[in-house]
Specification:
With 154 residues, this protein is α+β, with helices and mostly antiparallel strands. It contains five helices and three strands. Helix 2 packs antiparallel against helix 3 and helix 2 packs across helix 4.
Length: 154
């Protein structure tokens, strides 16, 4: 019987599963978003939420707990310097899972696990700059053809 045996197995042995979840958690903290399968995203989401809750406390003990779990010391610094204050007023629900559909190779359903507030937002000025850069690049790529079609020889 599986009484009180919750969680996701992810077709891995316990040590491999722990390493996978720690790595994904570290990546979410560092980059703000990861692209993975839906099952892995659902498995890592509670871990990310718990680590961010640790960052909201910002005590030495909480820092040591986070450092013991996360792989990268830079991720710990990012967690306590930026994410803790960012989510200080929020009582949970720091992440979002956005489904993308089946993966090309094996058909596994892929999703993005992202922290709230890390979604890409572009202002109209950014869009205008990108449009101008694309126009300039396309003009540079097209060769100039003279009117008579013949090249001058000097």
């Amino acid at each position: 019987m599986r009484h009180r045996k919750g969680g996701f197995k992810l077709q891995r042995d316990p040590s491999g599963r722990k390493a996978l979840l720690r790595g994904l958690t570290t990546s979410v903290i560092q980059h703000g978003r990861i692209k993975t399968t839906v099952a892995k995203a659902k498995a890592v989401r509670p871990r990310v939420e718990r680590i961010i809750t640790l960052a909201k406390r910002d005590t030495l003990h909480a820092r040591r707990q986070a450092a013991a779990y996360l792989y990268d010391p830079g991720a710990v610094k990012t967690l306590f310097d930026t994410l803790g204050p960012r989510f200080a007023d929020r009582a949970g629900g720091y992440t979002r899972i956005v489904r993308l559909g089946p993966r090309q190779g094996d058909g596994a359903e892929v999703a993005i696990l992202e922290l709230l507030g890390s979604q890409i937002t572009r202002t109209s000025e950014d869009k205008k700059k990108r449009r101008e850069a694309r126009m300039q690049q396309s003009q540079e790529e097209t060769p100039d053809v003279s009117d008579d079609g013949a090249e001058e020889k000097t």
